[in-house]
User: What shape does this take?
Amino acid sequence: MSVLLREISFSYGEKKILDKVSLAVCEKEHIGILGGSGCGKSTLLKILAGLYPVKDGYCEVAGACAPEGIRKQVAMVMQTPGLFPLSIRENITCGHPIAEEKVWQAVRAAQLEEWVRGLPEGLNSLVGERGGNLSGGQAQRIAIARAIAKDAPVVLLDEPTSALDGETAEALLRAMDRLTEGKTVIHVTHREETIRNYDRILVLKEGTLFEKESVSGI
Amino acid sequence: MTFVLKLFQNRKGTAILTLLCCVGSVIATLVWNKELAVLIDGVQGGYGLDRERVTWCAGCLVLAALLQGGMQFLSAYAGEYAVHDLRMRLARVTMGREYADLVKENSAELISLQQNEMEEINRYISDNLFTLCTTVVNFVFTLLFLLTQNAKLTLLYLLPVAGMAVYTTLSGKVIYRYTKREQEQQRKMNGVAGTLLSLFPVVRIYEAETLLKESYRWRIEGWKDAVVTQERTKAKLMSVSGMLSCIPLVLLMLVGGRMVLKGTLTMGMLYVFINLSGNVSGVMINISVHLANFRRFCGNLERVWESMEEGEREHECTVTGD
Assistant: This one.
């Protein structure tokens, strides 16, 4: 198993968000999780990313159980790109010694190459505060390139296209194909069309996960 | 200036009364100084003190103090009410807008920006605006007074002040450039610090702690360098300015003292010249600072005023359905 959750419960104070959630994901399997706003999708993903400690239940991601270990096994793209006010290169490598060729591979895979080569300072161009110098699509592509460069076995996607318009979102989903190729993917969203081709689709409702054969009506 | 007048449109009476108090206070102070010169000359000439004149001087002093107090009270009252009117108008405009528009235009940041500008306007009105009025009135009346008493001495001691005003303007520009640079560096440093909080999940997942720590250290270095350069430049330019500011007084002592020795100026009047010299030369030297502050205040006021007028127009269109 690439990802294994066993009876995970999670609360924000008195409010119970996840109630004994269990999930088993095989290696290279693509899982889509559907759910409305506030149903706990992002919380579940944060547990899977090792950002929240597990108090009730068991969580294992690519063989790691401790949050520090889990974080090494995952790459994540969130709703907002979360860029540092530094250069494109630093946003992709996050300060790790990644070879130049590998950085360019990530840039190419995220469909950013043409744009980056057109910039006067190329990879060293500053993205501005919170990606202020970039469009929403460009900023999110840098976040994808960062996830590609990390080359983690598990990819977590938290509605990465929700803040983008239809056309940009379509293009971004194509760019994400390279990121998710040959990886275990867990993609949470409230839009069915973004996970249509996934191996399995689950629904998160009232803190519990359900298998969903047909997602119409969600 | 138009916006400043608009600001006090509803408080015209108080504003005019404040100005009248200010003028009255300055005139009373000048009369007291004139009388002081006569008193000093009397003592120096061995005539002693005239009882009636001393009473008259004390009356002038009391009147000046009362008018000064009245001006302080009225200026605080007028200023506070003007700012209150402005703040209430801004609140009305904000409350009148559609919720969807507020969300779309990132209004939280906009309102925060306007609040900051409003705070600056408030501070300027409370601390500077009427002080500036007093300074200008003081300058004009004192200059006229000194010119009527001894035009030659007045012009002679004010001659180098013009050069110093140019120096202060230029050095002010240099200091402003360094201050801007320092603020920019500080903004960048705060930006990285803010990133640590807002992008905490990204930092953890991609293990970017070292990158951000390095970046923060580098920004702190940049800010430190900017602060050191700014302070060093300021210290150099200001110390020269401090030395130059003694020149008018030295000239006054030299030329005025010579006039006293020659008998073309009385000792009492020389004392009054020394006493009042700062009212004229000080203003001339710092004219660029006063103007820059006033321009900044006008700029803030203009921006807040125009955005309020725009908001009111939009609200009117929504209500009438245009």
Q: What stands out?
A: The radius of gyration of chain A is 17 Å.
